Fold this protein.
Amino acid sequence: MEIKLLESDKKDGIIVFALKNSNPAFANTLRKYILEKVPTMAIEDVEFRKNGSVLYDEIIAHRLGLLPLTTDLKSYVLQKDCKCNGEGCARCTVKLSLKAKGPCTVYASELKSKDAKIKAFHPKTPIVKLLKGQDLEFEATAILGLGKDHVKWSPAHVFYKYKPIIEIKGDIKDAEKLVEGFPPGIFKIKGGKMDIDEENIINYDFDDVLANLSSKIHVSEDKTELIFFVESFGQLSYKEIVTTAVEMFENDLQVFSDTLKAVSK
């Protein structure tokens, strides 16, 4: 298998790479490890002291749980692996608190964390709007968790597809008019003729092309190359997400190998 980096954007947390001489089984396994087994930090419990807003405690707690929190995998462990046996300590939990008085809009940036490394990745996310005389006060507990238990712990949007192959057969009349009928970035005019934009073609689905297909444009797939997309939600960088997933995959394979050897004796 060969891996080729196609696109990366640290600011938006996006990485796109090609898997050559691989197969959908491996790509889907990597996808599921990222979605389900890469741990991230998320709010699990909320203790309300005051809530005079129009939203019930449960609704605010749900909104808080879905806030992406920056995650430090070196400092925290899953509660099931912690020496405190899941009772909650500085190694497996972090406290966040908030105190606000209306009239105002309460934003995620107002969450005060006991650990500066654990905070809302999108600080401008609104939590609730308070009117005059309304108060909100609570203490929340965030823990490391896995996407297989709840989607709030999934670190990224992940998908893959075969590399698209688009061929233009013969000269096409009114090429400029035809290009305008396709989504931008698929085709371009070069030397007065219709040409394929190889750099952008990976970002489109075949349906975008098929919807405006000309008889002289042939669309197919390269079965030897998969395009893999990872779009981080912000808890971890795309590098941490992919490398952690690969490390966990390797560890599980080693455990499986050791178990297989043990039962074969």
The chain has a mean pLDDT of 90. The two ends are 32 Å apart (CA to CA).
